[in-house]
Amino acid sequence: MKEKDNQFDVIIIGAGVIGTAIARELTKYQLHIGVVEKGSDVATGTTKANSAIVHAGYDATEGSQKAFFNVKGSELYPKVCQELNVPYKPIGSLVVGFDDDDLETLKSLHVRGITNGVKKLEMIGQEALRNLEPHINPEAQFALYAPTAAITEPWELAIAYMENAMDNGADLFLEHEVLEIIRNEGDYPFTLMTKYDGHLKGFQSKMVVNAAGVFADRVYKMVAEKNTFEIKPRRGQYYLLDKSAGGHVNHVVFPCPSKKGKGTLVLPTAHGNLLIGPDSEDLTSSEREAVNTVTDNLNAIREKADQLIEDIPYGETIRTFSGLRAEPSTGDFIIEESQDFPYFYNVAGIKSPGLSSAPAIGIHVADAVAKRLKASDNTEFNPIRRPRIRCEALTGPERQALIQKDARYGKIICRCEHITEGEIVDAIHRNCGATTVNGVKRRVRPGAGRCQGGFCGPRVVEILARELDRDYLDIELENKGSYLLAEATKAVK
Predict the structure, then answer these.
(1) 202 pairs with which residues across the strands?
(2) What does the pLDDT average to over 265-289?
(3) Which of 13, 43, 152, 177 has the fewest Cβ atoms nearer than 10 Å?
(4) What is the pLDDT of residues 35-57, one digit of tens each?
(5) Alpha-carbon distance 168 to 158, whole Å?
(6) Average model confidence (pLDDT) across the chain
(7) Dihedral, 248, 438, 76, 381 alpha carbons, nearest 10
(8) Which residues contact 367 (CB under 8 A, 6 or more apart)?
């Protein structure tokens, strides 16, 4: 099926959760698939810094693409996460109201949710709300309860999607920034020129899927003289609290939404931490990588969260961070083949509920692309990702049996998260394996605990250098050039 290494049936630009979901679903067909990503790993953009919620689907406007894909995606999540061995916890959500105006908003959301096809939605009163969330503000009067809402790990899902896609034959090209797209005649209408390691590299493709996140409009402009949409970055900042604070709330707890979004929320994470945020700050077109945090914004988040939940233990904060959302000028997801340029498919403006919608978007786009290319089914497609061993979840006898087979699973590297050397080595050598310190962190969580890598970080560097056969000085934190070590301080003999 592969004529040349640089010729593909489909090239996907962007390896966030949307691009990787499409890649995995495309491998269900007999197609040669390539994914190009400018970062040093998958899931290094919006996917790595969001609220990690699988929304029920009551918020999006009736009849919108957001509403359709949110509800369908939410329904697909349990099966997808089971196949890909990714955390999924259906903990439910609460949208909390305080006054008559809030009550009218919640009633409208209730009706909208039913129209969108959300199941089991209900309005609850103060007593029921207090029973579900003991730390709720006593002045809260009622809430919209959505039991089908859930939480997951977005970066782990994207990694799992890409790993399974590669297991089924897709190719991944990291650190390949697309600089130009040339339109051609013949069997391969597109040539993508990328920059890799300081050199230009060309890829030919029959079809292109633009899943470039906050850069999607710029990518489309490479083929279109005039854009039909624009993307503006919208920044949201967060507090992440230690696992000791993870039980402070039991559900995803929202205030009533505003025009800018769902507001500052409080929720447990899939791994037991407590997450608070985000705010919503519109940035300029030139600030598409501005993921710094701002003290005033973080203080405002605290004030809003304190109006929702009492006694939040901010002293347990282990990290603050921010992420960018792709705000489209159309007000809705852009999921369509370009009318002006056949075989160029835009998947853009996938802001919230983008994570919730990812499984459904992946299937929809893959089916449309396969139909366009008249592709046959791949009868050898395997949907199951090899399970990742999580030593902390094993029983004593299970762990002892594993250590007998491989002693590295008995060596604790990260004491905060109880991560072993065996887990780290496995994460490095899988398809779509880790090559950076943060890449290891996203896959198996060393450095995600209270000390934030203060103790385990040097050991992770050592393991990466050994397993990748690299010098210590060449190991990076994240993207190209983010070296951790400058020179040796001691000569060890």
Answers:
(1) 193
(2) 96
(3) 177
(4) 999 999 999 999 999 999 999 99
(5) 15
(6) 95
(7) -150
(8) 25
pLDDT band for position 208 (cuts 50, 70, 90) = very high
Q: Which two tokens stand for residue 203?
A: 């890829």
Residue 136 DSSP symbol: B
pLDDT digits (tens, 9 = 90+) for 130-174: 999 999 999 999 999 999 999 999 999 999 999 999 999 999 999
From the list 467, 462, 468, 469, the residue with the least C-alpha distance to 492 is 462
Secondary structure (3-state) at 156: helix
Q: Which helix (H) or strand (E) segment is 8 a member of? A: strand 7-13
Please name the residues in contact with 131: beta carbons below 8 A apart, sequence gap of 6 or more.
none
Which residues are annotated as catalytic? Answer: 55
Q: Which residues are within 8 A (CB) of 96 and not within 5 positions of it... i.e. 6 or more apart?
A: 102, 129, 136, 137, 140, 142, 143, 253, 254, 255, 256, 308
Q: What is the pTM of this model?
A: 0.96
345 backbone dihedrals φ, ψ, rounded to 5°? -115, 120
Q: How far is CA 433 from CA 197, 352, 425, 446, in A?
A: 19, 28, 9, 15
Q: Is 309 exposed, middle or buried (0-12, 13-18, 19+ CB in 10 A)?
A: buried
| Terminal-residue alpha carbon distance, the chain | 52
Q: What's the rounded Cα separation, in Å, for the pair 277 and 259?
A: 16
Q: How many residues does the chain have?
A: 493
Identify the pLDDT of residue 1. 38
